[in-house]
Amino acid sequence: MKFFTFLAIFVALSGSMLKAQVSFISNATCYGTLTAMNGSNGSTDTVSSWAWDFDADGAYDDALGQNTNFIFATTGSFNVGLMVTFTNGGGDTIIQTIVIDPLPEVNFFVDNLCAFDSATFTDNSSISTGTVDFHYWDFDNNGVDDDEGMVVKYNNGVTAGFYVTKLRAVSDKGCSSSTFKQNQVFNVPITNFSTSATINAGSATSFTNSTFIDTGSVIEIYVWDFGDGEGSSFETPSHEFKTAQTYMVQLIAISDRDCRDTVVKGITVDEALAVAEVFGVESAIITPNGDGFNDFLKISALDDYANCKVTIYNSWNEVAFESDAYSNDEGGAFTARDVDAGAYYYIIECGEEPLMGVINVVK
């Protein structure tokens, strides 16, 4: 009796152990791609049919065959069932969990898209679960990655126009997706200026701005630095340098697209010009008190003329002083020491149109 009981238990266990050896494997899968599932039979029995349940409805009617592929509609965890039938009439069922990982949502932005200049590309891709670990850039749309990183600088080295950039983002699960963007590269100002050949300290200097930019953009801002602590935002400014030396003058031109160009030139400033004397009476008041100030009638720029005739009349139209070769000194000038205080009328003749006016003697 014990022998038959043992035999029955052994047979039952053997059958259970054989059935438990049915299983399947699947590859790690990213959303939107085929998930490959391969069934296996570890028992000695021959399998007559393989049936799959992908939607967990208990009906094994989604696919037939030992190996199959399936695209899941969403991301997340899915219970996949495999049912096998053996030729001897038995069967087995196994359910395993398959995880479908999300793809990165790829996006990026770029600044400073100016011709022949470096642009900064920033990846701001995101993912619902996990992390975005790798960022591959293709700047010339030739299918070859040019750089890797979340923030990269790229010197486009190209003229103004439209260019396509591709970004491929890869998650920590190896899932990748890409996006393409067409970006416009804008013209850069060509900055230049000039000044007069000779610049003197203390004199206003005009700057000629010859900056230009090709069509499609306009120059909005000019920033001048005259190298002496002063500047200007005018397109064609004027500036007075105080001292004679060489100044490094800088001009920055900025377009409406924030594209900019800079030029720096050394400007040599010469000494201030000598101020020429203006012919005429230096003071209309004569105070002959011997203090050294306005003691006599002094004519400026007198040395530019020879033998100037000076005639001075009092209020009664009488000649109070006369000289055919006037000089700015005590010996040859009108000192007013011998005349009364009051108003006097003068005529100065130096071969040109006479200079006439009134002086006052104060005593």
N/C terminus separation: 164 Å
Question: Proportion of β residues?
Answer: 35-45%
Approximate helicity band: under 10%
| Class derived from helix and strand content | mainly beta
Summed over residues and divided by their number, the pLDDT gives a mean of 88
* CATH topology annotation of the largest domain: Immunoglobulin-like
How many discrete structural domains? 4
| Shape call | rod-shaped
CATH top level assignment of the largest domain: Mainly Beta
Number of helices, where a helix is a run of at least 4 consecutive DSSP H or I residues:
1
Rg calculated over all Cα atoms: 51 Å
Point out poorly predicted stretches: 1-20
Largest sheet, spatial ordering of strands:
2-8-7-4-5
Q: What is the CATH-assigned architecture of the largest domain? A: Sandwich
How is the biggest beta sheet arranged?
5 strands, mixed
Structure description:
- The protein is mainly beta and 363 residues long.
- It is 5% helix and 45% strand.
- The chain is rod-shaped.
Short structural summary:
The chain is 5% helix and 45% strand.
Keywords:
4 domains, mainly beta, 363 residues, Immunoglobulin-like, 5% helix, 1 helix, rod-shaped, five-stranded mixed beta sheet, disordered N terminus
List the helices and strands and how they pair.
Layout: H1 2-19, E1 22-26, E2 29-30, E3 35-41, E4 47-53, E5 63-64, E6 67-70, E7 76-86, E8 91-101, E9 108-111, E10 118-123, E11 132-138, E12 147-148, E13 151-155, E14 161-171, E15 176-185, E16 193-194, E17 204-206, E18 208-209, E19 219-225, E20 231-232, E21 238-240, E22 246-255, E23 260-268, E24 280-281, E25 285-286, E26 299-300, E27 309-313, E28 319-323, E29 342-349, E30 355-361
Parallel strand pairs: 2-8, 25-30
Antiparallel strand pairs: 1-3, 3-6, 4-5, 4-7, 7-8, 9-10, 10-13, 11-12, 11-14, 14-15, 16-18, 17-21, 19-20, 19-22, 22-23, 24-26, 27-28, 27-29, 29-30
